[in-house]
Structure to design on (209 residues):
């Protein structure tokens, strides 16, 4: 067995310990550029009657007085932007799925999704995209709709998204590690694995991957 194939198999076995908890296979695609509004403005939109007053107060340099418009910037996709986008997606997914339980001391240890990430297209002519293995979502929510809403709330979210219930989890984990076969061992973002704190003791590790 070649070194790359052996490494790929090690990756599969490493993440396969989450197999019983994973429920959905998700593929998301990124826009190549996006018009991004200031974060302070985005917070202001929670109160529609006070958007422009708040924008003037907190970020006056972004305020276009004549048109009552807050100005943003065009940003272009990069590896860092893709990683930031997935972190934001995860935080939105967690809140949409669990609400304030993600913050409460008594519930936050288990009220977060499980998510394993592989980013592909950085070193090829493919559009940049990510394969995700997701689990630990409440059974009483519309999981497909929740994942879609969380993704489309991201600035760099392309409309293309595929969500499927997992029927052969090991096969999906094998698929999302396939880049290791061609030497791209960094496609699988092991250090970016998101998991509920309760899984740490159950699986027998001290720190999140």
């Amino acid at each position: 067995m070649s070194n790359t194939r052996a490494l790929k198999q090690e990756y599969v076995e490493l993440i396969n310990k989450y197999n019983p908890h994973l429920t959905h296979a998700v593929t998301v695609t990124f826009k190549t550029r996006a018009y991004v509004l200031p974060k302070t403005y985005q917070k202001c939109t929670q109160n529609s009657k006070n958007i422009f007053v708040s924008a003037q107060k907190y970020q006056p340099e972004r305020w276009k007085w004549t048109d009552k418009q807050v100005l943003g910037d065009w940003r272009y996709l990069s590896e860092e932007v893709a990683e930031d986008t997935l972190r934001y997606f995860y935080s939105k997914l967690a809140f949409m799925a669990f609400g304030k339980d993600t913050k409460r001391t008594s519930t936050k240890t288990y009220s977060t999704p499980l998510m394993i990430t592989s980013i592909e297209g950085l070193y090829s002519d493919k559009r940049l995209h990510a394969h995700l293995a997701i689990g630990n979502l409440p059974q009483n929510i519309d999981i497909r709709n929740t994942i879609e809403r969380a993704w489309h709330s991201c600035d760099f979210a392309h409309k293309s998204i595929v969500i499927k219930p997992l029927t052969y989890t090991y096969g999906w984990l094998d698929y999302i590690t396939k880049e290791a076969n061609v030497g791209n061992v960094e496609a699988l973002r092991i250090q970016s694995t998101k998991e509920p704190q309760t899984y740490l003791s159950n699986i027998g590790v001290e720190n999140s991957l």
Remarks:
- Confidence is low (pLDDT under 50) at residues 203-209.
- The domain at 3-34+76-203 is CATH 3.30.70 (Alpha-Beta Plaits).
- Residues 79-98 form the longest helix (20 residues).
